[in-house]
Amino acid sequence: MLTDPDVEETSTPAFSSLRSKFEKLAVDTSPNISAHRFSSSHDLLAPEPGSPRPRAMSNTADDLKASASTRSLRAASSSSDLKLGGKRPPPPPPARSSRGNSPAPSASASPLIHPVADSSAIPAASLALDNVHPKTGLLSRKPPPPPLSHHDPFDDSPGPGVSSLINKFGNVPTAPSSQLLSSSRSPYTSLRVSSHSSATLSPSVNNSAFAPESNAVADMPRAPRHSFPLSQPSKPPNPRIHVQSVAAVDLDMESPLPSHRPPLPCRKNGPVNEQNQEAVHGRSASSDSITSNESGVASADSSTSQGEMSTLPVLSPPTRPPSHPPPRPPPRSKITMPLRPPSVASITSVSSSPSSGTPPPLPARKGFPGSGDDSLGRRVPPPRHRSTFEIESQHSSVYTPNSTPLQTSPTDGAPITLPPPITTSSIIQPTERKAFGAHPPPPTRIIALGDKLPPARRLPSGSSSESEEDDLKIKVDLLPDSSRSSRRPPIVDSHNYSEFSIWVPAYTGVVAVSGHTVAVAAHHHLKIYDLSESDAPLHDLDARSMGLETKTKDFKITSMEFRPATKAADRGSFLWVGTKDGHLLELDIRGGLVNVVGMKPIHSHTVTHMFRHGRSMVTMDDTGKVLVFTPDPDGDVDAGLAYTQSRVVRIAEKQEFAKILGGYLWTSARDPSGNGAGNTSRSPIVRVYDIFTPGSAGKSLLPTEHLGTVTSGTVMQSQKDQVFLGHEGGNVSIWSLDTEDGIPQCREVVKVSTSDVLSLEGVNDRLWAGGRKGMIAAYDVVPRPWVMTNNWMAHQKLPVLKLVVDTWSIEKLERLSVYSVGRDERLRFWDGLLGTDWIDKELLKRETEFSAFRDLNVLIVSWNLDSAKPDALKGTAENVKFLQEALSSVDSPDIIAFGLQELIDLESRKMAAKTVLLGGKGKNPDGAISQRVTTSYKKWYDQLVHAVRLAMPADTPYTVISTESLVGLFSCIFVKDTQRISLKQVAITTIKRGMGGRYGNKGGIVARFVIDDSSICFINCHLAAGQSHVRQRNADVAAMLEDKELFPESGSIQEPLAYVNGGDGSMVLDHEIVFLNGDMNYRIDLRRDAVVADVKAGNYAHLLSQDQLMKEMRNNRGFRLRTFMEGPLIFPPTYKYDRQSDEYDSSEKRRVPAWCDRILWRSREPSRVQQLHYRRYEVNVSDHRPISAGFRMTIKSVDAEPRAHVKRELEVVWAEHEKSLLEAAYRFYGEQAML
């Protein structure tokens, strides 16, 4: 049996003995200092005979004698104790804290807490420091002399560092588990009173008595830190006792102790090796570090609440700034046992020799990796509090929840329980601790001293910035298809006078419409219009002049609605008005006078909403008070404010959105948290109330995902069992009313816009939505994905605040009228059935009846030059004959379009700056290139003109109608002189996409003209580069196709017959035929070796399945090129080659070959464009191969008179069709009680 000579095997004193000594110490405490008191304090702390080891004491002669052979701990007294004297009551016991089924005693309940020597036990010379300022006294104290060195048989470390201390005292003699029940305390922990001054006393005291004490501290085995924190007990009245670590309850001990080392604490910060353990614990190997550590502890304790620290068993804190509070400990994994059992490896190592035990490595820290001494640049973490059971859980004994009460002192409070041991077979391994919270891990890249700094992070720069990727995904990938939407506003002509003269103040104005009658209120003014008689107000009322002002000073109209009427003549004649102070008024606006037929101060707060539902009227204020005015269902008397009794319904207060949908009141409030992007909870809360059924309770609903605030809601005729809610952020949530339990449920969320949906209304079979940019869009919600059928500018690029269907217009105007109110303070009326679009679609079907057609040949050549000059076309036959071969690929082309990219070196700042400064100046009116552009553009222009003259017959001259350059892009369009007389509205412009639209290294040149009555558009583009920048390329395409101010509007007074979808020619998609060519940079999603192998084998089908452009057309529902077409790719990829070679890129980057150069087209009528060829050319002066495509397109010439005749016929057909649609709408709104 192995024993340790440093541990004595005598029994510990009884707890009652310690209790009596503690009381005696308190009684003997006196401000008078004497040597007798000093020695008596040592007698109080002296162990009784039979103690297994000496108590930790200070200033005793026995300690000096035993320092050479026994490693005892010196006692310590706090600096505050030196200044405090007198008798203090003992602390009360704290509340018991339990873990699992077995209560774990707190620190105050432990019988092993040692008293602290009072100020009376300190020599008089040392108390001279008490008269000095505390900080000054501490700084004036001198450190103790170095500790006495002596040989230790277990000393295998170079110095008394922490790692060496662990090596010395990590292995202790073994003891059978049968004697652990009689063990009085843990062999690995010893009680230590927090001391700050015992090592720095005045030199007048015999320093020889303190030098061994310092040595004992230096050689003391450091107790391991534990993962279980101690619960904070209440503050005791006597903060005198500071405990470093708590041992187990005293029991008899008859056998050796276990030989394995206690388990080291688990850390999240990574492994700590032997070399940096000293830095981890904030200790050094010298004796000076002990003194500095003691002073550091003193400064830390001086700023800590003594009431809290007196009851907390803590380890000796490392050196750290006192201003930093200790961080919260990480969360622990819950285990089924009340104690933390040791690992099986630690139990099996009980029988091993003292030298065979090896402490487990600590986990890696999140600090500076690879540093041997990490004490620099890092703050040492504070110590962890420990409980008695946490210390015992490190021993080889494993406990069960079954516990046995132990004998306690009367001052202990609740009895202390200690579970009995169990066998190792029932050990439950502790679960792995999880990281605190769900936060992502911090960055691990640390720049050490002398390391090279990383490159500067670039700001977001246009199409090639990865920081825009998420935003581009929303803008492009998730929106409905708008490529075929009509831009013509659906203007209604049902009124005799225009509504343009009606002014509605933004945000404060209130509008109510019934047929020709329009009521507009702003503050205390009320205007009544009748657009069948005049565009001027019939009544301009001032509430104050009419005597309608109430007792409040601020009379303001906040809501209005026309009340229902049984008689058709009375509908739209009685107007209900709600005010800011809660009054309700009913006005009769028939005839030439306005009469107040009812007035009640029935609401005590602002009336925010007013609804008409069936024969009932509903009013609502901002406190959640809802009044329902319902007339007698068996009578023919309408709801009147003066004679109809109201019923009160209570709902949630401050509901910004409120509307009756499907017979229920739907409300929602703004999220007080602000609906930030970081909020992941499902919101907002939608509340639904059945206000027409007395006694019914409201329901709170949540969408399927986090959405913005609800702004609007509606129901649709084609989707009667669904409710649509508009949200900030551009989403529309769809709620099903047909559920098993009758509670509405969110079924789907559709993204329709990049900005907020401010207004929403279901009109016929379309869902109308108003946004912040003044646009109103109509969506067909039946297909998946949704299709935007109409999109027009309604309110001059300002928010559309309100969108409402006038249901009474069906019987009053025989139209389905929709009105909108915008931030531009205007009221607009729209045709809800979109009759103009119906007529246009029918005209296209009968276009052959009034149009003549002819064919034209078109040749398009596209090439990325990689800054090659025209004189480089030499050497091989393919280089020399390239232009001749390309121009002869189409028989007598009527239109020739050259699109060149990277005509200059884009990496040359001088060349790019010269192009930017001179490229757009001094253009010739005939389309020829400017003389002020760079030499490269001029050389290529001359080369192309010369090649066309050589290739084409002399009797068929061509003229350049458009040229343009944009930082490497160059477009040049030739037209036969015989076709030039048919051209009109010729225009050309550029679109910059580089650096967020500020630089033209990426972008496009757009040219258009009208020939006969067909509009043709050519786009030469260079999209964002990069293998993975697909979304940036998609965004570049969308920006070019959807720019609404690309060209000036058509100046034609008559209907623009050459443009489609109701456009005026200002957008690309307004043109009937569009050609798109250039370096689009769409790549192949395969490895380079696989692509090269497929190219050599001619396996183009496999490559096309991974082509990014093809994949976007197939899978991306919002891809703007889905309506474009492309011919079959039967030639090898055109990118990227080594110059003057037929080998693909062999540089260090070894780029993947791809079909970057493409030619696509789009036609309103697909049969009117036929591709003649699609090929590439083997010119090796660039890293791209040039391509060309030939087309035969059909253009039309419209005969105006036959067209007008066909249109009149279609208007008659529409009138009959409109009646059927109005009847269906009238039935639907009747079912919804909206009439």
UniProtKB/TrEMBL annotation:
<feature type="compositionally biased region" description="Low complexity">
    <location>
        <begin position="96"/>
        <end position="111"/>
    </location>
</feature>
<dbReference type="InterPro" id="IPR000300">
    <property type="entry name" value="IPPc"/>
</dbReference>
<dbReference type="GO" id="GO:0046856">
    <property type="term" value="P:phosphatidylinositol dephosphorylation"/>
</dbReference>
<protein>
    <recommendedName>
        <fullName>Inositol polyphosphate-related phosphatase domain-containing protein</fullName>
    </recommendedName>
</protein>
<dbReference type="InterPro" id="IPR015943">
    <property type="entry name" value="WD40/YVTN_repeat-like_dom_sf"/>
</dbReference>
<feature type="region of interest" description="Disordered">
    <location>
        <begin position="33"/>
        <end position="115"/>
    </location>
</feature>
<feature type="compositionally biased region" description="Low complexity">
    <location>
        <begin position="177"/>
        <end position="195"/>
    </location>
</feature>
<feature type="compositionally biased region" description="Polar residues">
    <location>
        <begin position="196"/>
        <end position="209"/>
    </location>
</feature>
<dbReference type="Pfam" id="PF22669">
    <property type="entry name" value="Exo_endo_phos2"/>
</dbReference>
<feature type="compositionally biased region" description="Polar residues">
    <location>
        <begin position="33"/>
        <end position="42"/>
    </location>
</feature>
<feature type="compositionally biased region" description="Pro residues">
    <location>
        <begin position="315"/>
        <end position="332"/>
    </location>
</feature>
<dbReference type="GO" id="GO:0004439">
    <property type="term" value="F:phosphatidylinositol-4,5-bisphosphate 5-phosphatase activity"/>
</dbReference>
<feature type="domain" description="Inositol polyphosphate-related phosphatase">
    <location>
        <begin position="854"/>
        <end position="1199"/>
    </location>
</feature>
<feature type="compositionally biased region" description="Polar residues">
    <location>
        <begin position="394"/>
        <end position="411"/>
    </location>
</feature>
<feature type="compositionally biased region" description="Polar residues">
    <location>
        <begin position="272"/>
        <end position="309"/>
    </location>
</feature>
<dbReference type="InterPro" id="IPR046985">
    <property type="entry name" value="IP5"/>
</dbReference>
<feature type="region of interest" description="Disordered">
    <location>
        <begin position="133"/>
        <end position="491"/>
    </location>
</feature>
<dbReference type="InterPro" id="IPR036322">
    <property type="entry name" value="WD40_repeat_dom_sf"/>
</dbReference>
<feature type="compositionally biased region" description="Low complexity">
    <location>
        <begin position="342"/>
        <end position="356"/>
    </location>
</feature>
<feature type="compositionally biased region" description="Low complexity">
    <location>
        <begin position="66"/>
        <end position="83"/>
    </location>
</feature>
<dbReference type="InterPro" id="IPR036691">
    <property type="entry name" value="Endo/exonu/phosph_ase_sf"/>
</dbReference>
